[in-house]
Amino acid sequence: MTILAPSLKATPLAIPYRWWALIALALAQFLVVLDASIVNIALPAIGSELRLGTHMLGWVITAYVLPFGGLLLLGGRLSDRFGHRRLFIAGVAGFSIASAAAGLAMSGEWLLTARALQGISAALLAPAALALLTKLFIDPQDRAKALGIWGAVAGIGSAAGVLLGGILTSSLGWSSVFYVNVPVGALIIATVPFLISKDSPSERAGLNMSGAAAVTAGITALVAALSGTERVGWTSPQTLTLAGLAFLLLSSFILLERRAANPLLPLTLFRNRSVTGGNLAMFLIGGATTALFFALSVYMQQVLRYDAMKAGLTQLPMAGALVAIAGAVPAVVKAYGTRRSLAASLLLLAAGLIWLSFAPSDAAFAIHLLGPSILIGVGLGGAFVSGTETAVHGVADDEAGLASGLVNTSQQIGGAIGMAVLTAISSARTNGLLEQAVAEPQALTSGFTAVFLGAAAFAILGAIVILAVVPGPQMRRI
């Protein structure tokens, strides 16, 4: 298959296997998204076998998130500079090897190192995969359909983590949540060279290493500061020091980029209001969804007393709604434009979250949770697809990897901030009620209600941002 630049017209004969290629790209994205959540269910078993305390178990998650979020911009730029297919295959290979190493871990240090290597590899493959998609599908209608599938897969990966983690851990042991990545990765590596031809590296793609070091260290410090707030508090020396360091590093990154001959992230990219608005929306979507899936999983297991398997199965209606609406989004966008579609999706997401906030401590799934879950799935499906398309709209071909990395970075950082802010509010609410001798189930439920309402506020703010920032006429059709 030949990858064509957006300025050329594609013909069916030129790219006959592009839909098969999309399956391979989407599978890789599925693994990246899945791995951020599937490990949660396995943490107790991991801690027991490797003798890890609560603090170290938290680092099993953080060791993956830190390099992933911190290196996404650099990964996107590297894929522009050295070729998207090449970096995609390298990222998948690294992710598969690191996953095997994690499954074989015999100590906490071994596992954390493997998780960090998974995060580094994910930062290479994720932006390269989305960049390949935008280059393969240059026809507006085909690209809309492809992004619909992409958004559905990303959403399913988020929702399926609890279900697959419970099944694998209970039946095959905790190592299986890592081993499952290996055969899928091998299949992707074996098929991609036959489905996607080599693309030409861009000599224009800058590799400003001082800027790369500054932004990577700055984002890492920011994520580390936010990830630790629930454990050490917002005003602890650790949080304040890391936050101050993040501010200094990110400020220096902006100064370096303004002066660099070949900037890592050309600030002129943000003159494109669709890119700016789309990334702000994805930042807020990440903040809402990361906290949502965490709170919903814990609410079902700690308050409603669902086991891991049942908690996972109850997320199937949400995943089903997400898949169904993602397939319909291209037609909606064609009729109403990306701007309106994204704003409406965010408002539907907010409505579902507000509805979910009314669930009591003795909720019945069919009565209190099914309806909100379906509405949330509809909102998420529309938001993922139209948000991604908005964030990469109008980007030059040699900056596709950069724009794709920026989308993923926005979502990851938004998730870290949303998780930190909303879980802190939830904990304060729950602890306050417990001190007033309120029963634990009711106190926990009230805390989770705060999370759901806070996530709804993120979604509403995202809709406002889109309507205020993204121009209407230029985004009428994709």
What are the defining features of this structure?
478 residues, mainly alpha, disordered C terminus, Growth Hormone, Chain: A
Structure description:
With 478 residues, the chain is mostly helical. The protein has one domain: MFS general substrate transporter like domains (Growth Hormone, Chain: A). Helices cover 79% and strands 0% of the residues. The chain contains 18 helices and no strands. Helix 3 runs parallel beside helix 5, helix 9 runs parallel beside helix 17 and helix 12 runs parallel beside helix 17. The longest helix is centred in the C-terminal third of the chain and has 36 residues. It is globular, with a radius of gyration of 21 Å.
Secondary-structure map with pairings?
Blueprint lengths: L17 H18 L3 H12 L3 H29 L1 H20 L4 H29 L3 H33 L3 H4 L1 H15 L13 H19 L1 H4 L4 H23 L13 H31 L4 H6 L2 H21 L1 H19 L8 H28 L7 H36 L4 H30 L9
Assign the structural class, choosing from mainly alpha, mainly beta, alpha/beta, alpha+beta, or little secondary structure. mainly alpha
State the name of the first-level CATH class: Mainly Alpha
Tell the overall outline: globular
CATH architecture: Up-down Bundle
- The CATH superfamily title: MFS general substrate transporter like domains
- Helices, by number, come to 18
Q: What's the overall average pLDDT, rounded?
A: 81
Approximate helicity band: over 70%
The helix/strand order is HHHHHHHHHHHHHHHHHH
Topology, number of strands: 0
What CATH calls the topology is Growth Hormone, Chain: A
Radius of gyration, in angstroms, nearest whole number:
21 Å
